[in-house]
Amino acid sequence: MKATSPVKNLLNNQKFLALWLGHTASIFGDVLYTVGIMWFVFQDTGSAFAIAGIPIAEVVAKFIFGSIAGPLVDRWDRRYTIVISNLLKASVIFLITLLHTLGLLTPLATYFITFGLATIGTFYGPARGALLPNVVNREELTVANSFSIISERLVRAISWGIGGAAIAAIGLIPVAWINAIVYLVSAAAVWSVSVSTKPKQGMQRRYHSVLHDLWEGIRFFQSQPILRNLMLVSIPGWLTISLWSSLVIVFLDRTLNVGAMGWGIIQAFFFFAALIGSLVTPVVVGRIVREGRVVISVALLYGLLTIAFGQSGLFIGAVMIIMVAGFFDPFAMVARASLLQAYAPDQFRGRALSVWGTILALFHTVSYILSGILADLVDIRFLYIGGGLIYLSVGLIVWMRSPLKEAQVKCSE
Predict the structure, then answer these.
(1) Is the dihedral of CA 255, 257, 263, 269 positive or negative?
(2) Which residues pair with 289 in a beta bridge?
(3) Residue 288 phi/psi, 5° resolution?
(4) Strand pairing partners for 160?
(5) Per-residue pLDDT averaged across 322-330, rounded?
(6) For residue range 331-390, what is the model confidence (pLDDT) as tens digits?
(7) Which of 360, 368, 353, 372 is nearest to 63 (CA)?
(8) 144: left (phi > 0), else alpha (psi -120 to 50), else beta?
(9) Which pLDDT band, with edges at 50, 70 and 90, does 1 fall under?
(10) CA distance readout (Å), 383 to 108, 237, 307, 378
(11) Rounded Cα gap, residues 309 and 384, in angstroms
(12) Of the candidates 206, 234, 235, 231, which has an alpha carbon nearest to the alpha carbon of residue 217?
């Protein structure tokens, strides 16, 4: 009998499709909120610095609650956690309409609201990531992550345009109502997923042991060579994230003299290449090349690309490099997510994802702060050389000295 393909199995999997619809709607809602609230703050203050309060509020929430969200998610039914998270998000959006009607919506209020939504998100993320392996087979996990990333990239790109156009056409409050409805749709979709993820026997302990559970999650990473090295090889990407985001516009302006127009072109080509890469990822990752080798290989490639991008003297050269980076970015994203989900046992999965997200947020914050300071003190090209060397050094060490290169989702049991 001929085996059906993982893609066909996913499209016939009603549980996965419902979870995918719920996540897609939630992402759309998140982008609508970000567009609307940033535009409101800018219109109210005219200050770019005031807008920075929005991402700062998000980071603070992740630091405070990100580390404890995973242990709690492991205690709760993950489907209920996702549904309640979206219902709470909808309630917060309704609060915005009330405050605006009463004339109490201020930039300071938006920071607290953003903090609240980000706090809810720290529970939603681990719950959704931990639930996915409960609705798809292990052989379908890589394809399921690829499918989700393709959708997420498309939704994020389209949502920014839709959100901006909607704000301009109908204003903040109507968009807020749409935003709340989208979160309710997400909750309803996930509610329809008929899978139980109740804590296993022994997990329903008193809540004062949450910190103990968090420590168990950290110790779990330390005890797992695959996951420990997966985190190690990912750190250079987290530490140099600013080189591929906020500092790109500085590099383009200072060295290639192309300014904001060049920044827009670079972003467009990166997204286009990433979309193509996302379509190829299910064919390559886990089927032709082991997931562990994909992660390390992309890290080594990014080391070379980071150095090359910083030394590019022509704009067309920078565009070509950014397209290569964009094409291979989903390869690493899917491989990392699939390995993390597959090698973390069900009872530890929420904690593992939470620890991962907290450390990621920490390195992202360090990256933005350090790069912002150093970019004004030294030639920005040296930052790209340093970032590339970090990538290459860690990638080579992990390739030569760890079992990660042999790691594969279908062999993780």
Answers:
(1) negative
(2) 285
(3) -100, -40
(4) none
(5) 91
(6) 998 899 888 888 887 777 777 777 787 777 778 777 767 776 777 788 888 989 999 999
(7) 360
(8) alpha
(9) very low
(10) 35, 14, 9, 8
(11) 7
(12) 231
Backbone dihedral angles phi then psi of residue 157, each to the nearest 5 degrees: -65, -45
CATH of 213-411, one of 1.10.530.10, 3.90.550.10, 3.30.930.10, 1.20.1250.20: 1.20.1250.20
Q: What is the DSSP string of 352-401?
A: HHHHHHHHHHHHHHHHHHHHHHHTTTS-HHHHHHHHHHHHHHHHHHHHHH
Q: Is a pLDDT exceeding 80 seen at residue 393?
A: yes
- Residue 71: how many CB atoms within 10 A of its CB? 26
Residue among 335, 330, 334, 327 nearest 270 (CA): 327
DSSP codes, 190-259:
HHT-----PPPTT----GGGHHHHHHHHHHHHHH-HHHHHHHHHHHHHHHTGGGGTHHHHHHIIIII--H
Question: d(Cα 238, Cα 231) in Å, to the nearest integer?
Answer: 10
Q: Characterize 108-145 residue by residue with b for buried, 16 or more Cβ atoms within 10 angstroms of its Cβ, and e for exposed.
A: eebbebbbbbbbbbbbbbbbbbbbbbbbbeeebbbbbb
Which pTM was predicted?
Answer: 0.69
User: Quick one: 6-204 is in which CATH superfamily?
Assistant: MFS general substrate transporter like domains (1.20.1250.20)
The residue whose two tokens read 């709607």 is 25
Q: Give me the half-sphere count of Cα atoms (radius 13 Å) on the Cβ side of residue 46.
A: 0
The number of CA neighbours under 13 Å toward the Cβ of 173 is 9
Segment among 16-30, 145-159, 242-256, 326-340 with least mean pLDDT: 242-256
- Tens-digit pLDDT profile for residues 177-232: 999 999 999 999 999 988 766 555 444 444 445 566 667 777 777 788 888 899 88
Beta bridge partners of 130: none
Domain ranges of the chain: 6-204, 213-411
Amino acid letter at 160? Answer: W
Asked if 6-204 and 213-411 have one fold, the answer is yes
Q: For 101-115, 144-158, 242-256, which range has the lowest pLDDT when averaged over its residues? A: 242-256
Q: Are 182 and 29 in contact (CB under 8 A)?
A: yes
Q: Which position has the token pair 């110790």?
A: 219
The partner residues of 285 in beta bridges, in order of sequence, read 289
Q: Write the DSSP assignment of 106-161 as a string of letters.
A: -HHHHHHHHHHHHHHHHHHHHHHHHHHHHHS-GGGHHHHHHHHHHHHHHHHHHHHH
